[in-house]
Amino acid sequence: MRNFLIAGNWKMNCGISATNKLLNGIKEITTSLPDGVDGLVCPPSISLQTAADVLEDIEGMTLGAQNVHFEDNGAYTGEISTQMLNEVGSEYVILGHSERREYFGETDKIVNAKVLKSLEDGLKTVICVGESLKERKADEHKLRVRKQVQAALTGVEDGDATNVVIAYEPIWAIGTGETATPDQAQEMHKMIRSVLEGVFNQESASKIQILYGGSMKPHNAEELLQQPDVDGGLIGGASLKADSFTEIIDIAKQLV
Ligand SMILES: O=C[C@H](O)COP(=O)(O)O
C-alpha cells in the first residue's frame, strides 16, 4: 500500500522568522507523524536551512524545495542547483507547478530537464500537472494532463519510479476555494495511474503517490483522500497555518 503524502507548498510565503514560527507551531501540535502518513514542507529557498533545523525535531516530516535548475552550476542568476538542495537537506523538489509554467515560462521540455537532473542527483520529484478551466470546458483535460505526465517522464528509468510523485492540480481549483469533486479527482488520478503504467512497469507504477492539489482544506480533505487513487495532497493556503495543516495530517491518519 502507498503511504499518504501530505505536502505543504508555501509558495512565496514565510521568510526565516515566519518559517520558524510556523514549523514550531506544527511541532507544538505534533513531533511525530503517524504510521502510513508522510509529511513534507516546501518553503521558499531562503528559508530551507531554517526549516531543516526545526524539522530535525519532527519525525516523519521532510523538507522540499519549490524549484531547481537543470544545470550543475554557472551563470544562472537567481537560480539554485540540485547540489545546493542536497547540501541543505532537501529531499524533494516540486517541479512544473502551474504558477511556474504560467509566470516563468516553464515548458514541458524544461520540466522534463529538471525532472531528469533532480532524479540523477538523488532528489524526489513532485511533478505538477493540471488543466485550465478552458481545457476542462472543452473536454481536453485528460489529453492535456496525459501529455504533461508523458512529457515530464520522458527518459525516466524504471528504477527511478520510487522517486517520482505526481501532483494533479487543476488550475481552476488553485487558490480559488473551488475544489475538484472527489469523483473528478479520482477520475483524473486513475487516468494518470494508467499513463504511469505505460511509462513504468505495473508494480513500479502502482507504488507512485498521486497527490491532489487545489483548495484542499480540512473540511474537504476526507472525501478527497478517501478516493482510491488519491494518495495525499499538495496544499497551498491551508499549509500556512499549523492547525489546518496538522488537521489534514490527522484526517489522513484516520484513513490509513
Ligand atoms: O501547490 C499547491 C497548490 O497550488 C494548491 O494551492 P491551494 O491549496 O492554495 O489552492
CATH topology: TIM Barrel
* Helical residue percent band: 40-55%
pLDDT below 50 for ≥5 consecutive residues: which ranges?
Answer: none
CA radius of gyration is 17 Å
For the record, the count of structural domains works out to: 1
The averaged pLDDT comes out at 97
Function: Involved in the gluconeogenesis. Catalyzes stereospecifically the conversion of dihydroxyacetone phosphate (DHAP) to D-glyceraldehyde-3-phosphate (G3P).
Pathway: Carbohydrate biosynthesis; gluconeogenesis; Carbohydrate degradation; glycolysis; D-glyceraldehyde 3-phosphate from glycerone phosphate: step 1/1
Keywords: Cytoplasm, Gluconeogenesis, Glycolysis, Isomerase
Active site: 97, 169
Please provide a written account of the structure:
One of its GO terms (biological process) is glyceraldehyde-3-phosphate biosynthetic process. Involved in the gluconeogenesis. Catalyzes stereospecifically the conversion of dihydroxyacetone phosphate (DHAP) to D-glyceraldehyde-3-phosphate (G3P). This is Triosephosphate isomerase. Belongs to the triosephosphate isomerase family. Keywords: Cytoplasm, Gluconeogenesis, Glycolysis, Isomerase. The protein has an 8-stranded parallel beta sheet with strand order 7-6-5-4-3-2-1-8. It has 11 helices and 8 strands. The longest helix is centred in the last third of the chain and has 18 residues, at 182-199. It is globular and about 45 Å long. Strand 1 (4-9), helix 1 and strand 2 form a beta-alpha-beta unit. By secondary structure, it is an alpha/beta fold. The chain has one domain (4-255): Aldolase class I (TIM Barrel). It binds glyceraldehyde-3-phosphate. Residues 9, 97, 169, 174-175, 213-216, 234-238 line the site of glyceraldehyde-3-phosphate (G3H).
